[in-house]
TrEMBL record:
Natural source organism: Granulicatella balaenopterae
Pfam families, sorted: DUF2238 (PF09997)
Residues passing through the membrane, by range: 27-46, 81-105, 111-131, 143-163, 234-252
Stated name of the protein: Uncharacterized protein
InterPro entries: YjdF-like
Keywords noted in UniProt: Membrane, Transmembrane, Transmembrane helix
Superkingdom of origin organism: Bacteria
Length: 279
């Protein structure tokens, strides 16, 4: 218990030091977004929305992820990447969930999942790249480094879908958004009880009977419970991951030509110290 308390205290002190002594531009982004989250949390609490209050607290916890990763792996996030991570978290939890941007802006969810694929590929890429760059015994090919970044990104994307499913399954949150479809292909509905999909096309109306005499009518088709949303999210995550991994592959061959990519790749702390000394 004492070790855990000491670890938490040490992490908190490093977190405070980082955001009070650092000259990184991301500190300004962090401070502004943190204040906005606190204001939203107070507003949610006043209106008795405890779910929204919890999301705000969870957002503040997520804001510590860059510092935790920097502390754990002895790396430094570029200001651009760190700022994007903060904005991404705010856009997802506060604007998306509490502000209902997921419902108001059709492409909001797609944009976030694509960004997630790009960012996570960059983080996965950098961790392997740092180990490879500093190792005298093992030299990894650019393709392998890029592929690992891709795998890390897709793993995070899948875990995000697990998170959404858990929210729907255990907290009735509908994070995997429903969609109206006009066609159903189902083995379960096969009247002959065979293992062949039974096709129902041109669905234009569904009636749901619940309670004692209550009926809910869905016009326009059948309600898909989220599988289309899940697969769409994974697909756009794939696009983001492939985009970064491809750029990362060429970056390892020509760092000057693809220098802009360094804004999205964390570096080892000693590399930052060397660069500062040279400047």
């Amino acid at each position: 218990m004492k070790k855990i308390k000491k670890m938490i205290t040490g992490f908190r002190e490093r977190l405070i030091h980082k955001y009070t002594k650092s000259t990184k531009r991301s500190v300004f982004v962090y401070a502004v977004l943190r204040v906005m989250v606190i204001i939203v949390a107070i507003r949610q609490l006043i209106h008795g929305n405890f779910e929204g209050t919890f999301l705000c607290a969870f957002t503040l916890l997520l804001f510590t992820i860059p510092t935790y990763l920097e502390d754990s792996f002895q790396i430094t996030f570029p200001s651009a990447l760190e700022s994007i991570i903060y904005i991404f978290i705010f856009a997802s939890e506060i604007l998306g969930s509490i502000g209902n941007f997921y419902g108001l802006i059709p492409f909001w969810d797609t944009m976030l999942h694509t960004t997630n694929g790009f960012i996570c590929a960059g983080i996965g890429f950098s961790l392997v790249y740092i180990l490879n760059d500093k190792s005298a015994k093992v030299t990894l090919s650019p393709f392998y480094v890029a592929f690992v970044g891709f795998c890390v990104s897709m793993t995070v994307g899948v875990c995000w879908e697990f998170y959404e499913y858990a929210g729907d399954r255990y907290f009735a949150m509908d994070m995997q958004k429903d969609r109206i479809v006009e066609q159903v292909n189902s083995v379960y509905l096969n009247p002959e009880n065979t293992n062949e999909a039974f096709h129902i096309d041109g669905i234009h109306r569904v009636e749901i009977f619940y309670g004692e005499d209550d009926v809910y009518v869905i016009d326009g088709g059948y309600l898909d419970p989220g599988i289309n949303d899940t697969m769409k999210d994974l697909f756009v995550n794939l696009i983001g991951a492939v985009t970064f991994s491809t750029l990362g592959y060429f970056y390892l061959y020509s760092k000057q030509k693809y220098a802009f990519l360094s804004n999205f790749i964390p570096v080892k702390n000693e590399d930052v110290e060397i660069k500062t000394t040279i400047e």
